[in-house]
Amino acid sequence: MACHKVAAASFQLLSLVSFLLFLNPYSSIFLEASTIFANSNTVDDERSNAASIEEERKALLEFKQGLQDPLLELHSWVGKDCCNLHGIICNNQTGNIIDLRLQDAQISGTLSINSFSGPLPISIGNLLHLGYLDLSSNSISGPLPISIGNLLHLGYLDLSSNSISGPLPISIGNLLHLGYLDLSSNSVSGPLPISIGNLLHLEYLDLSLNSVSGPLPISIGNLSNLQNLNLFSNSISGSLPTLIGNLSNLQNLKLFSNSISGPLPKSIGGLSHLQTLFLSLNSISGPLPTSIGILSHLQTLSLSSNSISGPCHFQHQLEIFQICRPRTFPITQSQELRLAGSAISGPLPTWIGNLPCLRWLELSNNSKMNGTIPESIGQLRELKNLFLHGCSWEGFISENHFQNTSRLDSFYLSSEAFNSLVFNVSHDWIPIFNLTSLQIIDCKLMDTAFPVYNTDWFWRFSPFLDGVVLSHNQLRGNLPKSVSSPLQNVILKNNSQVGSLPLWPNVKQLSLASNRFSGPIPLNIGHEMSKLVFLDLSRNYFSGNIPRDWTGSLDLKIIDFSNNKLSGEIPSSMCSQLPSLKWLRLSNSNLSGNLESSLQTCRNLSALDLTGNNFSGTIPDCIGDNLHTLSYLLLGANKFTGNIPHQLCDLSSLQVLDLSQNNISSSIPACLGGLKQMTTGDGGLLGNSWVMNLRISLSLYGPMHIDLNVKGVEYEYIDNILGLIKKFDLSSNNLWGEIPEEVKNLMALGSLNLSHNHLTGKIPEGIGSLHELEALDLSSNHLWGLIPSSMTSMTSLSKLNLSFNNFSGPIPSANQFPTFDPTSFEGNSGLCGPPLPTQCSSASHNDLAPKVEEDEEDKYGKLWFYASTALGFIVGFWVIFGSLVIKRSWRHAYFQFLDNMKQALLLLLEVTRLSRSLRAWKMVD
Ligand SMILES: *[C@@H]1O[C@H](CO)[C@@H](O)[C@H](O)[C@H]1NC(C)=O
Ligand SMILES: *[C@@H]1O[C@H](CO)[C@@H](O)[C@H](O)[C@H]1NC(C)=O
Ligand SMILES: *[C@@H]1O[C@H](CO)[C@@H](O)[C@H](O)[C@H]1NC(C)=O
Ligand SMILES: *[C@@H]1O[C@H](CO)[C@@H](O)[C@H](O)[C@H]1NC(C)=O
Ligand SMILES: *[C@@H]1O[C@H](CO)[C@@H](O)[C@H](O)[C@H]1NC(C)=O
Ligand SMILES: *[C@@H]1O[C@H](CO)[C@@H](O)[C@H](O)[C@H]1NC(C)=O
Ligand SMILES: *[C@@H]1O[C@H](CO)[C@@H](O)[C@H](O)[C@H]1NC(C)=O
Asked: Where is the Disease resistance R13L4/SHOC-2-like LRR domain (predicted)?
């Protein structure tokens, strides 16, 4: 079809367009609007229009060259007539491209490329007549080109879910007709340009899930037609501009998960059409302005995880919630009040019961909220989610608190005030609601008839329970053998439950830690509980062997059986049957055997903790060969013998190595100084991408997701067992030889313990480079020499133990050294100076070699030492004086001289030490 053109320009038409734009700048009207615009060309423009179509066609084809298009969506983009191409609509009179839509087409590339036919880059900005552009959900990268500002007719721009980076160009402010702008889920950075305030027709602005920073520009107050402003999950800082209150058509304001600070401006009362206000996860402070109370359309007020302060009598602010507006469409529109995790104080007022349409009430984690929970919450007949955990409640919760809450679905309760909240409902109470999620932590559970509750009772809360958290409640009794509800998440840790392990088929996460369960772990657990992801049975009295058959549990990621009475070996098939296993913790039981066969197939483990068992034999080489992803290897307090296999040095993710309290006799492999995770600063717990995912999923959904707390427990668990992030513990073995010089490379190490071994030699001078080291224990070895002065630069060091060695000379006095206790240095007869009572005489500035307990081997070692020192002296002498004599350039020689003086002094020290040592040696002989 040939594109033809009708000349029909009129001022009236233009005004009509503006009017249409004003009414509804996006949606299909735009198509027409752009059409009409194009029509407004005069007859004189005929030739130039033909040229412009040619330009557009060329731009389009060149643009295509720069794109990758695996689905061949752009395959048709050849030939002269561009108007029939896939995703393109032309104006049927002028032939100009007015509409480009290629959503979710797996296209990658940039919006601007260097032209092969001209000097200027070709970009999307060359399609001058575009009214509608949708390239959402592709893989477009690079910045939004400045030339986007040429698209003066653009009414609809959707580039969401791509990889666009860099700041928004100022030229975006040229798009005066833009009604819809969606750049969400990209990597846009930098502040919003002031020019955004020119987009007076904008109704929808979405830049959520980007990296936008800086404060919101004041000009945002110009956008008087804006209905939706979504900027959540960015890095916006500063306080909310007062002019935000001018957005009188705004219906949804979503700014959660940013760094917004300062108080909420009073002007917020100007948002007279506001329905949802999502500002959680920021740093907003001060009290709630009373002007919130005039927002007559407000349905959701979410300010959780901020620093809102002041007493909790928000009658004025929440007056609006007293009116039940008809529920229009989505249920989520019904009223929600989320004020968790702030600094709100005082009691919850009784009038809270006057908010009859409240569906979601979240006041958790306001530790300054105190007093009793008013029974009036029982009148909230629409209430579905009630979160009252982490406040300082006291008094009783009774049936009256649930009188009319027949829609209650999730209920979380705990008190920060110790032992002050009593959950007291009668034993035969039948709740009028069916919960899917219940969490009661650290409460006194009481009943007039029974002094404590049996867990059985809690299943009555609902036949539909999905998640149950009842930790720290002194619960007693057995668990039911089966449950009718589709239970998936069960956290019952820290109670006094007895009996055997129940096999509940749907459970994914089960923690029964710190109870009094006993008996064997059922052999068929792998089949009966095949959906398990997380299984924590630690701190109980489980006995017998670890089940051999795990074939059903394909998703099991975490196993913690620590602190039980399990015996026997780790079944050799365990790892091969558990392909998802990341975390295996079997510490402090009676397990035994050789690891060689058990660990052959454990290829995906991140953490292995076998501390405190009776495992024996050598540490198998296969750990280094197979367990490439291992971050935590804890084998302490067992009966391992042999040496430290060099293969451990290949564990590039290793962050914690604990081989303490075994009978390992070898030298310390120098290659351990090359462990990648310990030599680089990044990573830490977060270096483990799997843990990282967990953390991200938590922070993203934050307080908005009901399953947060069950996941939260998992998270807490992971953090707890890994209190110390990067750690090396080889203490209490039979290690000999010197501390390898390579230790200086472990710059990310937080704790190093080599105590209670037979190590000899001096502390390597390079140890001063361990700037992250917080704890260093070298006690009870045969180390000697001066405490290297470089150690004063280890400014993180807060725990130091050098006791019971043969160190000598003055204790360094710089930086944090004076803060160490005398016990850090005791048992070293040659050490002097504070904090020890021994004064340093001039003679004690020496580096005394050991005088005690020498065997033949040590003597030969020492002979070699003296020989090499003497050699060093001779070589050193000639290097220094030789260089002084030979140097020609005096200026150079002067500096060289200073440097040489320093070396000479050091050398002198060495010589003195040599003579002292010789004397000491003679004395021993
Ligand atoms: C242009 O074409 C479309 C369909 O291709 C039609 O619906 C529309 O009415 C046409 N517009 C004009 C102004 O002819
Ligand atoms: C937008 O607001 C700024 C100040 O907030 C003002 O100077 C500017 O003139 C406004 N722009 C338009 C187009 O109204
Ligand atoms: C904002 O609103 C106030 C009062 O409603 C008005 O005086 C002021 O001119 C408005 N500012 C802008 C930039 O629109
Ligand atoms: C409340 O505190 C708990 C424990 O500190 C935390 O896991 C949770 O994320 C917090 N929730 C909110 C909504 O702040
Ligand atoms: C709540 O806490 C405040 C401040 O600590 C205290 O003054 C007040 O007495 C407490 N109220 C109750 C009911 O415990
Ligand atoms: C609450 O339920 C009781 C019956 O249990 C009823 O008499 C009362 O009217 C209800 N109150 C409200 C506010 O719905
Ligand atoms: C709770 O579930 C039971 C059993 O299915 C049902 O009889 C009852 O009506 C439900 N109650 C509510 C309030 O939905």
From this structure: 172-258
